[in-house]
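Our example pasted here:


***
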Amino acid sequence: MTMLVRSGAGVTLVPGAFASAKMDGIVTRPLSAGQHRMRVAAAYPEGDLVGAVARFLRVAHAAIEQRQ
């Protein structure tokens, strides 16, 4: 999945452990600071906060907020 992200062809959820991993061309961000059963982060092409990436992040954040 990270290869798709790096190439600009995808966005993915990754386990929180990946949030601190350095991956060339990929940025990870926690989706919420609250308590989780499992911590996840979003991985997307570095510098890409428009289009599908921005929409995905809005939907993911909204879904998390609904569950809290």
User: Anything to note?
Assistant: The mean pLDDT is 79. Residues 2-67 form one domain. The CA atoms of residues 22 and 67 lie 29 Å apart. Helices lie at 2-6, 51-67.
